[in-house]
Amino acid sequence: MIAIPLGLRQALESGSCVLFVGAGIACHLTVDGAPIPDGRTLSNDLASTFKVDVGGVSDLSKIAQIVELRRGRTELEKYIQKRICNPEPDDTLCWICTVRWRGIFTTNYDNGIEQAYDRTPNPPQTPVRIAATSQLSSFDRRFQVPVYYLHGKLCGPDQSRIIITENDYAEFRKQRQMMFEVLKQEFATSTFLYIGYSNQDPNWKMLLEELRSEFYPTPLPPSYRVAPSTEAIDDEILKSRNVETITCNFEDFQKSAVISLAGARVPTDALKRLESSIPSDLLPAFEINPAAVARLLSSWEYVNQAPFSEQANTRAFFRGGLLPENTSILR
């Protein structure tokens, strides 16, 4: 079993963890029985399909730029849609839909995360899709989770222009400025978990450098990444940037997290019932960490707002019946 760092475990239990999803999860999503392509595979497939002589280049943005120049944007996007849209998620990926997240960010273009939520019975939150600045809206984090498509989205009714060519990347600040501002704010106050990103992934490196420049000279807040292997020199550099690597694949991480978080989930319908019984002093804590507050109040009574106006139960107290077995008073 993989050891889940304490800081990450607490963030996962409290629902204060932000998930960042990259193309490396492609092996957990299939279209017509085959995994959807990751960045490198999509780059090679585009070059082969549209007869682009890459000359050893496997940069997706450059090859996509050539395809757009030669065949047009519509042809480029139609091909990618055919390869990635409406994939079937496996059980490993569906696990993320059983965890309460503060938010989910992705640089992928597919709707695999949404498909996973649709397949998961009674998820603790429902996804709010945000693929463009115009779709930014308010939501209740206890019951909803925002899913930000930082590079746009190609699948479903809420499609948006994707960032894939070199020209697109040159313009991304203008197109996605408000969404990246949300990302920076979340990064400053939340624990981040990266899955599906290698240390060489250009999307991840660009985002990390962007965040470092915003925080400089203050160190980045602690965050975690799941990766099967990392060069020793890269691992040392990442640690200096407060990024701790959990060395395993996502499937092994998921299995360990299931065990570590057993008992931490509170069903959505139970949350709604519990909210009416939570002392008003504890409601702010309940909104941030409902599972922990629910466990606390199942064993303790908050005397500052106890029902002292009720009839005294002195006789029951002296007979040992004031409190349920194995409970205590919280002062």
β-strand amount: 5-15%
Q: How many DSSP helices?
A: 14
Pick out the low-confidence regions.
324-331
Number of domain units: 2
Q: Helicity, in percent?
A: 40-55%
Oligomer: single chain
| Mean pLDDT across every amino acid position | 85
Main-sheet strand order equals: 6-7-5-1-8-9-10
Helix and strand run:
HEEEHHHEHEHEEHEHEHEHHHHEHE
Which structural class do you get from the secondary structure elements? alpha/beta
Shape: elongated
Largest sheet: 7 strands, parallel
Give the distance, in angstroms, between the N- and C-terminal Cα atoms: 39 Å
| Rg of Cα set | 23 Å
Number of strands: 12
Task: Explain what the structure shows.
- By secondary structure, this protein is an alpha/beta fold.
- The protein folds into 2 domains: 6-260; 268-330, no CATH class.
- It has 14 helices and 12 strands.
- It has helices at 6-14, 39-49, 60-71, 73-84, 91-94, 112-119, 166-189, 202-215, 232-240, 250-260, 268-275, 283-288, 290-299, 314-318, and strands at residues 17-21, 29-31, 34-35, 88-89, 103-106, 126-130, 144-149, 191-195, 223-227, 243-247, 300-302, 328-330.
- It has a 7-stranded parallel sheet with strand order 6-7-5-1-8-9-10, with helices on both faces.
- The longest helix is centred in the middle third of the chain and has 24 residues, at 166-189.
- Residues 324-331 have low confidence and may be disordered.
